[in-house]
């Protein structure tokens, strides 16, 4: 997958693990389950006669629209995960993501202050991790979620070493 407008030529993108879809599905389920339940409470209260407001049509429409949007987001999750990628170059790391609103970020090794790995409970169970790159500018902090734990560890060590080498050369 290459987007001519924003991708540098000649880049071979490394993809995150397909298991990351499961992590995103769990996050989706938890967030949307709570949202739909909360937005359905007015409908239940109206049907039980406990509330007179909102009108029945509004009490039905709000959770229904929310459910439709949630299903739309659910269908996009596998494609969003496939869009995440990274590429190591000689002087910097490229990170890309997004389907509709695509983004390619360049993080120079010399700008990296530290590289961090985070693991949530679902990621841990699937053997995945999230790599976080911290720079002096908060706008350029970047993450690569869904990396296999071994690749995350390798990448952390590789990026830290390259960052130190570039910083020492300044």
From TrEMBL:
Which key words tag this protein in UniProt?
Membrane, Transmembrane, Transmembrane helix
Q: According to its UniProt record, what is one Pfam family this protein matches?
A: bPH_2
Where does the sequence pass through the membrane? 25-50, 56-76
Show where the YdbS-like PH domain sits. Answer: 82-159
Signal peptide feature range? none
User: Is Membrane a UniProt keyword of this protein?
Assistant: yes
Highest taxon, organism lineage: Bacteria
Keyword Transmembrane helix assigned: yes
What's the protein name? PH domain-containing protein
């Amino acid at each position: 997958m290459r987007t001519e407008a924003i991708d540098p030529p000649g880049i071979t993108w490394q993809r995150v693990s397909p298991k990351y879809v499961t992590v995103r599905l769990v996050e989706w389920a938890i967030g949307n389950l709570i949202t739909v339940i909360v937005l359905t409470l007015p409908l239940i209260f109206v049907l039980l006669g406990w509330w007179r407001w909102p009108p029945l049509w509004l009490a039905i429409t709000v959770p229904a629209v929310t459910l439709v949007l949630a299903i739309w987001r659910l269908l996009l999750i596998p494609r969003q995960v496939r869009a995440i990628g990274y590429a190591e170059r000689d002087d910097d790391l490229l990170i890309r993501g997004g389907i509709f609103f695509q983004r390619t970020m360049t993080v120079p090794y010399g700008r990296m202050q530290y590289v961090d790995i985070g693991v949530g409970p679902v990621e841990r169970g699937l053997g995945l991790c999230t790599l976080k790159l911290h720079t002096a500018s908060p706008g350029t902090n970047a993450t690569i979620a869904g990396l296999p734990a071994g690749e995350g560890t390798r990448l952390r060590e590789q990026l830290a070493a390259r960052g130190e080498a570039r910083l020492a050369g300044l």
